[in-house]
Amino acid sequence: MVPESPITAQVRRGIILFGAILAIGTSGYQMLGDFGFLDALYMTVITVFTIGYGDAGIDSMGEKIFTMLLIVLGSTAGLYIVGGLIRTLAEGEINRAIGNLMNTRNIGNLQNHTIICGYGRIGQMLARELSEQGVEFVVIDQNESRINMAQSEGFLTISGSAESDEALMKAGVERAAVLATVLPEDSVNVFITLTARNLNPNVKIIARGEQPTTEKKLRQAGADEVVLPTSIGASRIAQSITRPTIMELVGDSQRKALLSQELAALGVELDELVIAENDEYFGRSIGEFEQKAEANFVVLAVKRADGSIVQHPGHEFILEPGDSIIVIGNGENLPSKIRSHVSTKSLV
Fold it and tell me: How is residue 2 annotated by DSSP?
């Protein structure tokens, strides 16, 4: 159960007190004066709210003393409730102002950070991934609901259009190491890229493009890298169809993308080699297979025709028709006889 805040408790107690005063006032007028229930309630309400309308029906000393006490109690209860409401509003504004001040101060202290322009579906995935990796970043978005969502995740934010110099400067573009513009509109990404490049000639810009034809425009605007999510998705599906064994070993698309970057930096790639019944390697061992290839690759796994996978098979492992051999190496350096077994260009 969520604990009740002191201000909420004050408002709740004030409302209970006010209700009790109305009940006491109504009962008091019924007992002290010749009032029915409705008249007594009416007298209580106009007394508590200090409206009055004269002292009609209030003649005795007891009734007058009771009325004065009711006015004091009613006014006190009203001030108590109003005070709680004012505190609630004031505290919210103060907390918001403090939050904005801390947000601005934290952004001002960043160096070599990343700026994410757009907190849509891709921006959210990117922000969570960077957060898990411990990378400092700032999110820019002009949609208040998305900004609130980012703030609830604990991310630093700038509310505004990333197309404007002001928003980019607030995000510290002149000190940033990377800017990723991932909005779904290509024209907006082109403009953000151009603006960011003018503000910081050294920042690395990674831009999202929906249409392949936009890649050239993004690069002309100053993008260092262009990512086409549609092309990546299509490639991922194609690889799942043509190379199910490798995709099964590599795992999900995020792991595959990371592996692709690491292997590319080393100048190697994963390949899938298929053994047929009339293949010269049928019935031979992994050791013989590697010897024929002049040790230009390393065998990672073999998938049997029945679907079972043998990881890190030994040199004595015998190859059979239908086996898929997963190897890592430089595809261009593979002997022609081995290269002919590659089902498609490369895994990643």
Answer: P
CB 243 within 8 A of CB 270: no
H-only helix segments in the chain: 6-32, 37-48, 61-108, 121-132, 144-152, 165-170, 186-199, 214-221, 229-242, 244-250, 253-266, 286-292, 336-339
Its CATH architecture, for the domain 6-103, is Orthogonal Bundle (1.10)
Decide which of 14 and 287 is more confident. 287
Listed in sequence order, the residues at least 6 apart from 296 whose beta carbon sits closer than 8 Å to its beta carbon are: 329, 330, 333, 334, 335, 338
Q: Tell me: the pLDDT tens digits for 317-338?
A: 988 888 888 877 765 556 666 6
Distance CA 224, CA 231 (A): 18
pLDDT value at residue 119: 94
Q: How far is CA 8 from CA 22, 30, 78, 84, 116, in A?
A: 21, 33, 15, 7, 38
Beta strands 297-303 and 324-329: pairing type? antiparallel
Question: 54-68, 98-112, 219-233: which has the highest mean pLDDT?
Answer: 219-233
- Supply the pLDDT for residue 213: 85
pTM value? Answer: 0.49
CATH superfamily, with its number, for domain 242-339: Regulator of K+ conductance, C-terminal domain (3.30.70.1450)
Averaged pLDDT score across all residues of the chain: 77
- Greater pLDDT, 152 or 84: 152
The domain spans of the chain are 6-103, 110-227, 242-339
The CATH number corresponding to 110-227 among 3.30.460.80, 1.10.10.60, 2.160.10.10, 3.40.50.720 equals 3.40.50.720
pLDDT in tens, 225-256: 998 876 555 555 555 555 555 555 555 545 55
Q: Do 320 and 297 contact (CB within 8 A), yes or no?
A: no
With CA atoms as reference, report the closest residue to 255 among 242, 265, 243, 246: 246
- Give the Cα separation of 176 and 205 in Å (integer): 10
